Amino acid sequence: MVLPYLIEGAALVALAAGAGVAWRGRTRKQARDAAHAQEAAHTAALAEAEARHAAHEEEAAREHEALAAQIESLRAELAQRKSLADALEAALASERAHRDDAMHHAARIASDAARLKSMSSTFERWHEQMISLMAENNDMHKKNQELSSIVSHVLIVSLNASIEAARAGAAGRGFSIVAGEVRSLATRSQELSKSYRDSLNRNDLITTATFQDIQAGGKMIAATLASVEASSNQLQVQLEAAYAGAQA
């Protein structure tokens, strides 16, 4: 009776021992599987970290290249702007030199205009003097005509005196001589009056031609002066406007 119980007990012990061995085997396998899974997770995390690092490095490289390209573009733009600024400065310097030259030219025009104005005043004075000279010539013509009339009258009187002296005979001989001298002086005076009249006529021609030349010259100078003053004023206005625009 005892033996079956012992056999049954031994069987139970053996079964328990097998179950323990099996449990321990499963535990080790689970541990190995857990270790492999953890290692795989670590490997995957490392791969993901390396991929992210590579992506960051690639993005940084692209950003660096883009930044380098932008810097190069900025350098090129800066060089272009500097070249443009240099060209603009040269153009401004040339414009300033041109403006200064134009200002000097305008000043010379104004000076020439002032001299022309002075010359115009001189022509006006000559014009007035020629008018006065022509008036004096006319007055001298009148006086010469009056003198010629007096000489003609004296000549007639001397002829009458000579006739009366001839009629008086020997008593009128002395008076005849005086009358002859008076007639001779009257004849010479008449010739001198005629010569004086011819000189006055020539003087009239010269005076009239000179007067006309002075009038024409004065008109030309006045017209030229007006044109020069207008050009000078216009040039001055343009230069002031250009200077104001350059300053702005």
Q: Keyphrases for this structure?
A:
248 residues, mainly alpha, Helix Hairpins, 0% strand, rod-shaped, disordered N terminus
Write down the CATH topology of the largest domain.
Helix Hairpins
Distance separating the two termini: 131 Å
In the CATH scheme, the class of the largest domain would be Mainly Alpha
Question: What overall form do the CA principal axes indicate?
Answer: rod-shaped
User: How many individual helices?
Assistant: 2
Beta-strand content bin = under 5%
Number of domains: 2
CATH superfamily of the largest domain: Methyl-accepting chemotaxis protein
- Uncertain parts: 1-5
* Class by alpha and beta content: mainly alpha
Quickly give the CATH architecture of the largest domain: Orthogonal Bundle
* Average pLDDT: 76
Task: Name the helicity range.
Answer: over 70%
**N-to-C SSE string, H for helix and E for strand:** HH
Overall radius of gyration: 68 Å
Q: Count the E strands.
A: 0
Biggest beta sheet attributes: none
Topology:
Layout: H1 2-168, H2 173-247
Helix pairs in contact: 1-2
Describe this structure as you would to a colleague.
With 248 residues, the protein is mainly α. The chain folds into two domains: 91 residues; 146 residues, Orthogonal Bundle (Helix Hairpins), CATH 1.10.287.950. Helices cover 98% and strands 0% of the residues. It contains two helices and no strands. Helix 1 runs antiparallel to helix 2. The longest helix is centred in the middle third of the chain and has 167 residues. The N terminus is likely disordered.
